[in-house]
Design brief:
It is a single chain. By secondary structure, the protein is α+β, with helices and mostly antiparallel strands. It has two domains: 109 residues, Ubiquitin Conjugating Enzyme, CATH 3.10.110.10; 60 residues, no CATH class. It has three helices and ten strands; from the N terminus they run αββββααββββββ. The strands form three sheets. The protein has a four-stranded antiparallel β-sheet. It has a three-stranded antiparallel β-sheet with strand order 5-6-7, with no helix packed on it. The longest helix is centred in the N-terminal third of the chain and has 13 residues. The chain starts with a helix and ends with a strand.
Amino acid sequence: MSLKRLKSEFDNFINNSFNEVQLEQFIETDRNFIVLIKPDGLYKGEEYRLSMRLTNQFPFEPPIVVFTGPSPVHRHVFSNGHICLDILYRDKWSPALSLQMVALSVLSMLNSATEKRRPGDDAGYTQMVGNNTPALSASYFYNSNMYYLHCAFNKITPLLITIDAHRPKACRIACRGRMGHTCTLSCVESVAAWSAQRA
């Protein structure tokens, strides 16, 4: 990661500040931006902090973004702070996105909420993933013949499924999409990829 891009990210927060999104701290050793966000709507009067840590491959891969400290109760925010937002994962990430734009996207997600509730599988997910990288939120997880599917792209209702661990490419799993349509998931060899087709 270039020092020029790092300086650009820092300067962007300072020179183009928003009252709802403010850079609170920069931890240079971890290349970690701590950003205070102040949502509206259901969360009016509440404040949350995002940890936005840059990897060595940034901006060609997304930053690692999680809520640090208390996280908002939202259908796309797990209680361990992991966020289910498509631009935070490689398939939808663009190097043109700035950290401030990412923070504003998280803010918009909160502002548009119509109810306060956790994802349906919050307990199972947080127990399995803990505080590991949130990139796992976009993947299948294997643990004793159990695969977990999570909603990194906000399309599929998260669910727990059991399949043949020795034939992951052969399985097809029925599920129900967010809009009520049925769909089928094709298991793939790569843990970071999956596809969904309407039945």
